[in-house]
Amino acid sequence: MHELTSFLSKFDIDQEKLFMKVFPVVQEYVIDSIRPTEEQLRKWRNSPNGREEFRVYMTSKFTVPPTPSEVRVLWNIYNGRKQTSRDKKLIRCYIEAQREAVFCAHCGRKDGSFHVDHIVPLSRGGTDELKNLQLLCAQCNLKKSNGYDARKSFI
Ligand SMILES: [Zn+2]
Fold first, then answer.
1. What spacing in Å lies between the alpha carbon of 130 and ligand 1's midpoint?
2. How many domains does the chain fold into?
3. What is the structure's pLDDT at 54?
């Protein structure tokens, strides 16, 4: 719990209010930002060593290497398979421990405080959907609000 609290303290949000509401979005965001391409997934599905190559890929993306169970759940997520509630809990705990996976979508920095930014601002018709959210460090967020467009692909 301490880790999650300090993780969330990186975001400019009311923690009491949004603690449970925001984490699933952050988790989804982290998982989505390291999603392999469809072509990569197809290659791994058709190769006898595919699952091992997937494990190596996932290990390169995280500070704490995933256990075999965590690799299995991540594989199911990226291949659109159902997860049990136990799987969901497992992956949630894993992502919570991955604060290093959080980085500024524009400059890539991993330290300091972050803001959940709307790529298309709400005032211009943007939504709260994941595809319209990105994490920006405080400096990049400030530049963006001054008219600078920090939009960038994550992959
Ligand atoms: Zn930045």
1. 19
2. 2
3. 96
Please give the full DSSP string across 105-130, using - where no structure is assigned: TTT---SS-EEEEESS-GGGT--SSG
Residue 103 C-alpha to ligand 1 middle, in angstroms?
8
Tell me what pLDDT residue 16 has: 45
Residues within 5 Å of ion ligand 1, judged at the Cβ atom: 104, 106-107, 137, 140
SS3 11: strand
CA distance 78 to 65: 18
Q: What is the DSSP letter of 37?
A: P
**What's the gap in Å between 150 CA and the centre of ligand 1?**
9
Q: Name beta bridge partners: 116.
A: 135
Do residues 129 and 153 share a domain?
Answer: yes
Domain that holds residue 91: 2-101
pLDDT attached to residue 92 = 78
Q: How far is the CA of 106 from the centre of ligand 1 (A)?
A: 5
Q: What is the mean pLDDT of each run of 10 residues along the chain (155 residues)?
A: 55 52 71 90 96 93 84 94 88 70 78 79 80 82 66 39
> Of 63, 86, 101, at which residue does a domain stop?
101
Q: Cα of 41 to ligand 1 centre, how many Å?
A: 30
Q: Are residues 69 and 117 in the same domain?
A: no
